[in-house]
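User: Could you go from structure to sequence for me? I need the amino acid at each position, not a summary. Structure tokens:
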């Protein structure tokens, strides 16, 4: 829909110890960003890889059908952040 989320993660010992986000989007996207950052903080990268848009939406108490795609933004941003971290770590 054009909304965007920027997610920064701080990783130590394979665990996400901090997460900051900036979302330009609807209220559901902002709520999904917030809950996603809470869900991943203190969890291992492996656990965070398993986090799905469904988990994020359920953690919000559900989203209306027309807003389900808003939870995808946070799930995609998380995958991108982990991928970025791992690509920089390997080099
Ligand atoms: Fe675009 Fe919610 S309407 S992310």
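Assistant: Here is the amino acid at each position, in order:
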């Amino acid at each position: 829909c054009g909304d965007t989320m920027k997610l920064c993660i701080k990783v130590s010992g394979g665990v996400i110890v901090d997460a900051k986000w900036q979302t330009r989007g609807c209220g559901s996207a902002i709520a999904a960003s917030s809950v996603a950052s809470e869900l991943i903080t203190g969890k291992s990268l492996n656990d965070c890889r398993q986090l799905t848009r469904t988990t994020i939406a359920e953690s919000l108490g559900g989203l209306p059908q027309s807003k389900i795609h808003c939870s995808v933004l946070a799930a995609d941003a998380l995958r991108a952040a982990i991928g970025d971290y791992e690509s920089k770590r390997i080099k």
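One structural detail worth keeping in mind: The CA atoms of residues 15 and 45 lie 6 Å apart.
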